[in-house]
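Hi R.,

Here's the chain you asked about this morning:
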Amino acid sequence: MQEVEDTGEEYDMIIIGGGFSGLGAAYQFLKKYSNTKKCLIIENHPIFGGEAKQNEFEVDGYKLYGPQGSNDFGPPKKDDKGLIAEIYHVTGLPFDYKFVKQDPKKTKIKAPIENYYGVYWDEERFDTGYFLGKEAKKPWIINPRADKLSRLPWPDDIKADLNRAFEDREDKYQGDDIDRWLDSMSYKDLLEKVYGYSPAITKYFDPIIAVSMGGVGCDVYSAHSARNLKCHARARAMFMTAV
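And the predicted structure, written out as tokens:
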């Protein structure tokens, strides 16, 4: 406290944290009061954005990009009347843009335009590497879905169950109210009791559920919640027909 200096500055509002919430509050403050009042945002990082900012770091000489909280952020339409479109208009963010075309002279990696799709949901369409540890006979397995997981050193029964889940050819429900049926059980029960998958398959899906729905696994969320996740994330290849 001895190092604190009184600058004599006065503000009508002080916002702690420059993440989405803090920036949103500042935007609403500016919208209401314009330049008639003063607002201060206190942020302890050099870049605003909080959970939404992009992290870049080096590991063994390789630059890695690790986004945090925000994923699959779809830009609004220009004629949309919502808050996000309004912010785009006010701040001058572009509504129309083009993605840079991949230069085959620099890389041939099939990378998704969204950071999670190549990892969990559209894995068969993009290049994905599984790191099995430095001591493994083959530390990296690239695109294991290309040959039905045959190169992975996992038990055959586990690989068979995963392939069955990925192929998604089974329909276990023959009624009219699938939503009520799905909401009557956990996603873990749907996987293991209804579809007969090994608990190892539930363990495989646990982190997918956790990163998408609040940090807990298949034993907590209902099968209906998993179905909603499919609708939101277009996870067509990762969840069974009933979900």
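The chain has eight helices and six strands.

Let me know if you need anything else.
M.
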